[in-house]
Amino acid sequence: MGALLLLKGIYLKAFDDCKPDYLVVLLKAYSVFCAFMLMVVFYAFFYRIFTGFEF
Q1: What b/e readout covers 3-40, taking b as 16+ CB neighbours within 10 angstroms?
Q2: How many Å apart are CA 34 and CA 28, to the nearest integer?
Q3: What does 1-55 look like in DSSP terms, one character per residue?
């Protein structure tokens, strides 16, 4: 749990001095999109491992 709080602090600190508000919103949306895409990749990878897909 401590690692998640550390990452949350780093994430929030990165946007503290960013002045254009639209840029902050765009970067936060992009980071959420990237996290979602990584989750999809990991899901597909583990699904293929556990269902016996031949690499």
Answers
A1: eeeeeeeeeeeeeeeeeeeeeeeeeeeeeeeeeeeeee
A2: 10
A3: -HHHHHHHHHHHHHTTT---HHHHHHHHHHHHHHHHHHHHHHHHHHHHHHTT---
Look up the pTM and report it: 0.69
**pLDDT per residue as tens digits for the range 17-43:** 888 889 989 998 999 999 999 999 999
Residue the block writes with tokens 């401590």: 2
Q: What are the distances in angstroms from CA 5 to CA 8, 9, 11, 23, 33?
A: 5, 6, 10, 24, 20
